[in-house]
């Protein structure tokens, strides 16, 4: 899911005005290359569950960085205090994207599955290891967070908008199927679905969709986080390059960050210091030595 205005503070995702157009251009290009739809634009219905939350949202509606993403206030569904429709959101069909991309690279003869062998020049390796790499300590201290999501089948629920509220989200997949999430867990960083996680996500589903649904899938994963959901790229001390820390916003940031990394590697053009892993690592070391 991509949701332009996020969190309790109803704020634009970090630098979304630059990264979203880059992502959409990239996904449109991928669709042309693989002949399959991967990006599904959806309005986002942001729901306020309390007067306090609603007052905060209303106070932000005209802010210069928020207003471009606001389509308008809309009638709140039963049980909610207020609702705002947000524009610019959508769903990336990650499975179609990955399968299509794999097929594309297989046809070019440059797809190789499995572990990376480092018998050659490791300076050319780009470590896109996600949370596994961060948890192995390759990039220093991390803040990875486990999350659980459910896939549901439900009749009569709104299939035209993503819903955000009650600390969670509900994303229509078509054909009466929805994804709903998610939990946050910082201590047990495994990929195992739990009863507790399921119960929490079912609660979110009841609040956002309705009481009646069938659970048809339950997954857990770990979000790769170094510094909130702000991605980083750059050379590693031990050789090779890192491309990581996409947090819970890989669909939004991966295309723009990959473009920056390619520009750096191929043309020698360094990215903004804000996304340069070397800057981040220096800052971390300064913080640690204090
Ligand atoms: C519960 C949950 C909800 C989320 N919701 C959203 C959302 O709504 N929107 C969104 O944009 N993002 C969301 N994310 C985040 C998104 O999944 C990540 O940002 C994204 O997957 C990061 O991509 P990545 O390629 O860096 O890492 P990954 O997707 O983790 O991919 C890394 C891959 O590399 C493999 N690997 C690791 N080490 C090695 C090695 N040494 N050799 C070979 N292979 C290796 C791993 O097995 C894995 O397949 C969510 C994540 C979670 C857990």
In short:
The protein is an alpha+beta fold and 290 residues long.
Descriptive terms for the model:
7 helices, 290 residues, binds flavin-adenine dinucleotide, 8-stranded mixed beta sheet, D-Amino Acid Oxidase, Chain A, domain 2
Can you describe this structure?
The radius of gyration is 20 Å and the shape is globular. Strand 14 and strand 15 form a beta hairpin. Helix content is 33%, strand content 24%. Among the domains are: 5-96, no CATH class; 145-223, D-Amino Acid Oxidase, subunit A, domain 2 (D-Amino Acid Oxidase, Chain A, domain 2), CATH 3.30.9.10. The strands form four sheets. It has an eight-stranded mixed β-sheet. The protein starts with a strand and ends with a helix. It has helices at 16-34, 51-60, 94-108, 130-135, 195-208, 250-267, 277-289; strands spanning 5-6, 11-12, 39-41, 44-48, 70-74, 82-86, 90-92, 126-127, 145-153, 162-165, 168-174, 177-181, 214-223, 232-235, 241-244. With 290 residues, it is α+β, with helices and mostly antiparallel strands. It contains seven helices and 15 strands. Bound molecules: flavin-adenine dinucleotide (FAD).
**Percentage of residues in helical conformation:** 25-40%
The helix count comes to: 7
Distance between the termini: 38 Å
Q: Could you state the order of secondary-structure elements as H and E?
A: EEHEEHEEEHEHEEEEHEEEHH
Largest sheet geometry: 8 strands, mixed
- Main sheet strand line-up: 5-6-4-10-11-12-9-13
| Class computed from helices, strands and strand pairing | alpha+beta
> What oligomeric state is this?
single chain
The small-molecule ligands in this entry are:
flavin-adenine dinucleotide
* CA-based gyration radius: 20 Å
Tell me, rounded to a whole number, the average pLDDT.
Answer: 94
Approximately how much beta-strand content do the residues carry?
15-25%
Low-confidence stretches: none
* Beta strand count: 15
Shape verdict = globular
